[in-house]
Specification:
With about 350 residues, the protein is an alpha+beta fold. Helices cover about 20% and strands about 25% of the residues. It contains 10 helices and 17 strands.
Length: about 350
Amino acid sequence: MDESRRQFITIGATVAMGALLPKAAGAGGPIPNAAAGALRLVSYSYQGGTPRVGAVKTSGRVVDLGAAAKARGMALSFDPVSMVSLIAAGDFAVAQARQLMQEGPEDGPLVADVRLFAPIMAPTRNVYAVGWNYLEHFKEGEAMRLKTAELPEHPVFFTKAVNAVNGPYDPIPYDAAVSTAIDWECELAVIIGKKGKNIAEADALSHVFGYCVINDTTARDLQQKKHGGQWFKGKSLDGHGPMGPWIVAASDLDYRNLHLTTRVNGVVKQDASTDQMYFKVPRIIAELSAGLTLEPGDIIATGTPPGVGYARNPQEVLKPGDVMETEIAEIGLLRNVIGG
């Protein structure tokens, strides 16, 4: 492990581009809160190699799915350098990946020693997102709306541009000439696995491939004061959507009671549970897919709980050098330095 990664453990340390050590993964120990046999899929590179798809063992070792399949003479049903290819290949691909993870070598690189990218490195479509999906966050947003509103009857949808997607340990760009009011928003991301349109709530979860962590990092001054009050630009600055650190297969995770936390420089800012969602995942998928086709690899950010910076008194914003940690305990941790 190079010295820059060791220094990254300490908040406020100088952070370099490249592979950065996720604190939750430790220096090579077991993955915290790891469910036995859970499938964790990553897009990663090792020692500067070509990005590829891997699976992270509970021990923290990474299995190169393409190399492991080749060693066993297994014909893969997906392209081992494309996460979306794996997602689109469906249940058989998941079964292959799980088998390779379970039977793969225990001498693969530690997750701390590889570079993790966003699991879906280059989405072909915008990230779908839900606004005001936790009641307390809806209430704290009254100041931004300038009036008290009735609780929504339908989910509030918007999108983040694909260029906002960023790695789980990569720096968040900061340009004071563009925005000086960057805020945090910890969210559960749903990854669509099966194409569908007009999906019924009762069938919605069968269209989910898996889940990961995303931070809907937001430029509040752009969101509130410019561009007609619409959200797209304030949500879509380059690199303002870190996600990962991996996708946990839907069959291995119950999304309904996950613990979400945001910390800034070690101080807890958001602390909530997905149980507090106003619109649950099946309702979100059903309403989003009404007249709109969802595709394998689509990403849905399901809304943030209370505790965002703009709603605090006094208001808080992220500054260059701040360390933003976004965690869903049952999935994993993102750590991003602002302007690093």
